[in-house]
Amino acid sequence: MGNKIQVNMITQRAVEEGVAMEKGKTSPEYYEVCSIVEMNIEDIKRLGIMRNTNVRVTSESGDVIVKAVEAGQYCPPGLSHIRQGVWANQVVPPRTQSTGVPQYSGFPVTIEPAPEERVKGALELVQGAVGLWKGEN
């Protein structure tokens, strides 16, 4: 199997996310554009995986399975982007540095291959986070 790497995480907004959000956060379009982590191709290679492989992103606050894709914008090695929303919220640290806003950017994460793991949908993640998910695993 591949390796684990540590990178700095930045959550961000994207045009694709905004367009998909208009269709709904449980839509296939939203799932497709938001359940990803954008990475530098060198970091994907360091993981020992191919593009579009599922990975586990883990922070001090939790973890989430997302698909690793090559960044479509500038992303140097050691930095990764995950779009703000349901998947990002699983790993965003709650600390606010007295601002009242969680630390959406600039926090360390570990990324490791998880090709056999399933990327969960938005509803499953939200309901699962509070113990209300009753659907299939």
How would you describe this structure in keywords?
MoPterin_dinucl-bd_dom; Asp_de-COase-like_dom_sf; oxidoreductase activity; Barwin-like endoglucanases; Formylmethanofuran_DH_dsu; six-stranded mixed barrel; single chain; 137 residues; 6 strands; alpha/beta
What does this structure look like?
This protein is of the alpha/beta class. The chain has a single domain (5-129), classed as Barwin-like endoglucanases (Beta Barrel), CATH 2.40.40. Helix content is 26%, strand content 31%. It is built from five helices and six strands. The protein has helices spanning 15-23, 28-34, 41-47, 86-89, 122-129; strands at residues 5-12, 36-39, 53-59, 62-70, 79-83, 105-113. A hairpin with a 2-residue loop joins strand 3 and strand 4 (62-70). Helix 1 packs antiparallel against helix 2. The mean pLDDT is 89.
Largest sheet: 6 strands, mixed, barrel
Number of strands: 6
The structure class reads alpha/beta
Q: What portion of residues is helical?
A: 25-40%
- Overall radius of gyration: 14 Å
- Order of neighbouring strands in the sheet with most strands: 1-5-2-4-3-6
Overall pLDDT confidence: 89
CATH architecture: Beta Barrel
Give the SSE string: EHHEHEEEHEH
Instruction: Count helical runs.
Output: 5
Write a brief structural summary.
By secondary structure, this protein is an alpha/beta fold. Helices cover 26% and strands 31% of the residues.
List the helices and strands and how they pair.
Blueprint: E1 5-12, H1 15-23, H2 28-34, E2 36-39, H3 41-47, E3 53-59, E4 62-70, E5 79-83, H4 86-89, E6 105-113, H5 122-129
Parallel strand pairs: 1-5, 2-4
Antiparallel strand pairs: 1-6, 2-5, 3-4, 3-6
Helix pairs in contact: 1-2
